[in-house]
Amino acid sequence: MAGPARPAGPQGPQGWFGKAMSKLSSTRAFARVAPPIVTNLDRAVYRVSGGRWVLTGNKKVLPILMLITVGAKTGQERRVPLATIPDGDVLYLVGSNFGRERHPAWTGNLLKTPQATVTYEKETFPVTATLLDADEKAEVWPRLLALWPNYDGYQERSGRDIRVFRLERAGST
């Protein structure tokens, strides 16, 4: 007899690897040490695999996209692999920075220049980013937590209002 059907849409961490990554990434030690290491490793694996993989992202952990922005201070192209929460035609990005005190640089880039490019599921396309206001964030927050429960802990530990962005394909609004 088959088990209960899973609800449609994104799921939280699955399997032993996904659950282990969720547990590990919720720690303060991980937040102190991992961000530069993990981001650089993800970038390298992404480049070597032709955009098919990143070290930390797969269907058992979190969906990952490559965000390409213009640096707010430098004006240079910036690439960062990020967890994303897909919801229909929209992709959400959470600027949790693993619960660190400062906002991640990519959020400042999107605030200054909301036009960006993403590669997601082997497709590259232009997007427009919108910072969610408090009401919009409150509405979507439960869906974000369903995929990555650590966001609540990151919010509390960071001592700041974590930025959440909605990405829509450019020209689709």
Radius of gyration, whole Å: 16 Å
Strand content: 15-25%
Order of helices and strands: HHEEEEHEEHHE
Major beta-sheet overview? 7 strands, antiparallel
Q: What would you note in describing this structure?
A:
It is built from 5 helices and 7 strands. It has 173 residues and is of the alpha+beta class. It has one domain: Pnp Oxidase, Chain A. It has a 7-stranded antiparallel sheet, sandwiched between helices. The longest helix has 21 residues. The N and C termini lie far apart (45 Å).
The gist of it:
This protein has 173 residues and is α+β, with helices and mostly antiparallel strands. The chain contains five helices and seven strands, in the order H-H-E-E-E-E-H-E-E-H-H-E.
Which features does this protein show?
single chain; 173 residues; alpha+beta; Pnp Oxidase, Chain A; seven-stranded antiparallel beta sheet; 7 strands; 25% strand; globular; disordered N terminus
What does the secondary structure layout of this molecule look like, with pairings?
Blueprint: H1 15-25, H2 28-48, E1 64-70, E2 77-83, E3 85-87, E4 90-94, H3 105-112, E5 115-120, E6 123-131, H4 134-147, H5 150-158, E7 164-169
Antiparallel strand pairs: 1-2, 1-5, 3-4, 4-7, 5-6, 6-7
